[in-house]
């Protein structure tokens, strides 16, 4: 291989490494954004649960229960997104994720 060809290959490999590093950084950023959104929804669920403890049966409680269910569905979806994104980058052990992101149980009444 000529010197020019070797230099060209080295440049190409350097560019490829740069692009791969950028992609890895974006994957990490995406995981962080989903994790932050999930933490926020879990916090919202805890706050709604406290509110529900003080509401008597009636329309206000029914509305709060519906909101809790919607926020919980969103939290579960975000948790699923996080699992999928982790698996896409080769992380298949989700035990730490399960321990850190605990979505509260459903409240139906």
Strand content: under 5%
The backbone outline, from C-alpha atoms, is rod-shaped
Q: Could you give a short account of the major beta sheet?
A: none
> In terms of per-residue confidence, which ranges show pLDDT below 50 for 5 or more consecutive residues?
none
N-to-C CA distance: 75 Å
Category by helix and strand content: mainly alpha
pLDDT averaged residue by residue = 90
Task: Supply the key terms.
mainly alpha; 3 helices; rod-shaped; 109 residues; single chain; 0% strand
Task: Describe, in plain words, how this protein is organized in 3D.
The chain has about 110 residues and is an all-alpha fold. It has one domain. Helices cover about 80% and strands about 0% of the residues. It has three helices and no strands. It has helices at about 5-55, 60-90, 95-100. Helix 1 (about 5-55) packs antiparallel against helix 2. The radius of gyration is 23 Å and the shape is rod-shaped. The termini are far apart. The model has no long low-confidence stretch (mean pLDDT about 90).
Secondary-structure map with pairings?
Blueprint: H1 3-53, H2 59-88, H3 95-100
Helix pairs in contact: 1-2
Summarize the structure.
The protein is mainly α.
């Amino acid at each position: 291989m000529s010197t020019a060809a070797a230099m060209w290959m080295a440049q190409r490999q350097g560019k490829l490494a740069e692009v791969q590093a950028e992609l890895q950084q974006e994957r990490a950023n995406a995981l962080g954004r989903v994790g932050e959104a999930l933490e926020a929804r879990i916090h919202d669920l805890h706050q709604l649960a406290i509110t529900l403890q003080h509401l008597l049966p009636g329309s206000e409680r029914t509305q709060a229960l519906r909101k809790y269910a919607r926020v919980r569905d969103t939290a579960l979806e975000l948790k699923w997104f996080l699992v999928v994104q982790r698996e896409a980058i080769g992380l298949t052990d989700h035990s730490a994720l399960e321990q850190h992101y605990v979505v509260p149980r459903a409240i139906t009444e």
